[in-house]
TrEMBL record:
Domain annotation Helicase ATP-binding: ranges: 21-183
Domain called Helicase C-terminal: residue spans: 214-377
Keywords, ordered alphabetically: ATP-binding, Helicase, Hydrolase, Nucleotide-binding
Organism: Desulfomarina profundi
Signal peptide: none
Protein name per the record: ATP-dependent RNA helicase HrpA
Molecular function per GO: ATP binding; hydrolase activity; RNA binding; RNA helicase activity
Residues of the full protein shown: 1 to 669 of 883
Length: 669
């Protein structure tokens, strides 16, 4: 039956089928490197099927992005044409696998989570870690975990696939396993450097206009052909598409980013009578191959998440991509014939960039990493077989934060609190507030708030309609707390949901109120997931009486103690690290906040802005964190009348004075 598996004749990987199958049979680990579009993701699972016809367990294939897991699963299912469910995928909130599934695509996070229930991954015969060059945290976890597991399970096969970037590191990690290089037919690509003229100020609008001018120029002067444009953000892509629609009517304009609807995503694989212009984020760099591209326009930018150890914030700044990424992008147009890659930056700029993007482990919040590692029993990061071990400073900082949150004890063992926190698929600071909410009796409110904090604010402010959006958002706004505003959005949405019971009406509701429908759905999903997990535990039922402002905000504090700030002057606050910050100007709280605030997140551009904030009372801090507050005394004096020693007490939190000169009585002499 397996001999009937067919492979697309044009794909470079097809020519190497025998080598790959041989390597799979004779080696426990095989690294397969090949250019994007050579057929790795879609064809290797089929080759595994063919290599091991007597196996009955799963062939698992991990993907860094949900969007790739679903589109690729659909493609392989179509190519194989087997029974329903034979090829299926599982992502965080949706498991589409069935009993008849043999090829399972999933995000790497899903496989990692499965190691908790099934430490030896006994459901699998073969595991393919796809796109390993991305070096996300999950991939590094998996590669370390699998290294240990392979020693225990000699029957398990591992395939690591990667774009042609630094494959040596993987082979070395797995005892110098073989590397198969898939040589594809590639054509020369001409590079043109076309930076914004120096006298023009680099603002978003001018950059986009420049980009569109370059595309128009290409369109007029070169042979017709499909164009792939790389821009950093969804917003840039939308605006660019609008401009292109206006100026170019002889092409089909297609946006491509992670949150786009599946049906729109699939359009990039269709062929049209007119040439197409696909405007994409870095998903089109290696994850998804847009076929038939002749021209690439590269902004040289991407959003890359980064944890800033100094400000203790994770942000998603638009960053210059590495030279390796620039060249990946360039390579997208050399597959069907000679191509042209226009770089919207100068050659000097290119030369000055780092060769590779740092692996995520070297730029992330290690508290979450460590908590997961402890819960997964992966041991101490110092002993774990990481390809690139994290910096010891960051590890120490991670342990410190976990101790501060009460997730681990002095011996770095999980506490009861920590065990619950590790169960929740959210940042430790956020899971900590759920624990606090149990004590403050405001679980109903905090479950809702924590779910949205773990996602992203659902309120959207489209370019040029910012004011309309602000007006629409006002009806939800609480005068002193963004957290309550979020709660209001949830409540309104639920009322409407019960009345209407139709997704299309809910979509309209979101549109009318400038809310992202997608995020609202994710919010519901994550909230339900949290409820399901918490319902298995004693004492996490919802409060029946609405909680007060004080209850809710006291519960928020233990998770965000480091994010407390007090007013220094007018609009400037000072935080617990003596850094100045401002409330984000677009926020409803911008001109309303009180003397003391707590923030759930920050964004750092030219200065530090607090997002999602609430006004609090400094006295609350002491009641929720007496162990972390520092006490000092001055002016001791003997009080004759009572016969006791009196002094003035100061209380501070990480150096920030919260209570000054409070009279205390040290008792009788
Ligand atoms: P790689 O993983 O090596 O980058 P893929 O296996 O993803 O390569 O892609 C191989 C080919 O299959 C490409 O030409 C790509 O355009 C095509 N392809 C992948 N997914 C789809 C899909 N959903 N519909 C149509 N073609 C697809
Ligand atoms: Mg791929």
């Amino acid at each position: 039956m397996n001999s009937s598996i067919s492979y697309p004749a044009g794909l470079p990987i097809t020519a190497r089928k025998e080598d790959i199958i041989n390597s799979l049979k004779t080696n426990q680990v095989t690294v397969i490197a090949g250019e994007t579009g050579s057929g790795k993701t879609t064809q290797i699972p089929k080759m595994c099927l063919e290599a091991f016809p007597d196996n009955h367990r799963l062939i698992g294939c991990t993907q860094p992005r949900r969007i790739a897991a679903s589109t690729v699963s659909a493609r392989v299912a179509e190519e194989l044409g087997r029974e329903e469910g034979f090829v299926a995928y599982k992502v965080r909130f949706h498991d589409h696998t069935t009993r008849s599934t043999r090829i399972k695509f999933m995000t790497d996070g899903v496989l990692l989570a499965e190691t908790r229930q099934d430490p030896d991954l006994l459901k699998y015969d073969v595991i393919i870690v796809d796109e390993a060059h991305e070096r996300s945290l999950n991939i590094d976890f998996l590669l370390g975990y699998l290294k240990n597991l392979l020693a225990r399970r000699s029957d398990l096969k591992l395939v690591i696939t990667s774009a042609t970037i630094d494959t040596q590191a993987f082979a070395e990690h797995f005892n110098h396993c073989p590397i198969l290089n898939i040589e594809g037919q590639t054509y020369p690509v001409k590079i043109r450097y076309c930076p914004l003229p120096a006298e023009i100020i680099e603002e978003r609008e001018t950059v986009l206009e420049h980009c569109v001018a370059v595309i128009r120029d290409l369109f007029v002067k070169e042979l017709p052909g499909d164009i792939l444009v790389f821009l950093p953000t969804e917003r840039d892509i939308r605006e660019c598409c609008t401009l292109l629609e206006k100026y170019i009517n002889s092409a089909v304009i297609l946006p491509m980013f992670g949150r786009l609807h599946a049906a729109d995503q699939r359009k990039i694989f269709q062929s049209f009578k007119k040439p197409k212009i696909v405007v994409a984020t870095n998903v089109a760099e290696t994850s998804i191959t847009v076929p038939g591209i002749r021209y690439v326009i590269d902004s040289g930018l991407a959003r890359i998440s980064r944890y800033n150890v100094r400000s203790k914030t994770t942000s998603l700044p638009v960053t210059k991509i590495s030279r390796a990424s620039c060249n990946q992008r360039k390579g997208r147009c050399g597959r069907i014939g000679p191509g042209i890659c226009v770089r919207l930056y100068s050659e000097e700029d290119y030369e000055a960039r780092p060769q590779y993007t740092l692996p995520e482990i070297q730029r992330s919040n290690l508290a979450e990493v460590i908590l997961q590692m402890i819960a997964l029993r992966l041991g101490h990061p110092a002993d774990f077989p990481f390809i690139d071990p994290p910096h010891s400073n960051a590890v120490r900082e991670g342990y410190r934060l976990l101790r501060e949150l009460g997730a681990i004890d002095a011996k770095n063992r999980l506490t009861g609190t920590g065990r619950i926190m590790a169960d929740l698929p959210i940042d430790p600071c956020i899971s900590r507030i759920i624990i606090a909410a149990k004590e403050s009796n405001c679980l109903r409110e905090i479950k809702i708030i924590s779910a949205i904090l773990a996602i992203q604010d659902p309120r959207i402010r489209p370019a040029e309609r910012e004011q309309d959006a602000d007006i629409a958002h006002k009806i939800f706004a609480h005068p002193h707390s963004d957290f309550i505003s979020l709660l209001n959005i949830w409540n309104q949405f639920q009322i409407f949901r019960e009345e209407s019971r139709s997704w299309s009406k809910l979509r309209k509701f979101c549109k009318l109120h400038y809310l992202s429908f997608q995020r609202m759905r994710e919010w519901l999903d994550l909230h339900d997931q949290l409820e399901r997990i918490l319902n298995k535990r004693e004492g996490f039922a919802n409060n029946s009486v609405d909680a007060s402002y004080e209850q809710v905000h006291k519960a928020l504090l233990p998770g965000f103690l480091r994010n407390i700030a007090c007013r220094k002057e007018k609009k400037i606050y000072k935080n617990t690290r003596e850094r100045e910050l401002m409330i984000f100007p677009g926020s409803h709280q911008f001109s309303r906040s009180g003397e003391w605030i707590v923030a759930a997140s920050f964004i750092e551009t030219n200065r530090l802005y607090a997002l999602t904030i609430a006004t609090i009372e400094p006295e609350w801090i002491e009641t929720v964190a007496p162990d972390i507050c520092k006490y000092s005394w001055s002016h001791p004096a003997y009080h004759k009348k009572s016969g006791s020693i009196m002094a003035l007490e100061n209380v501070s939190l990480f150096g920030l004075r919260i209570i000054s000169g409070r009279k205390v009585n040290f008792g009788r002499r």
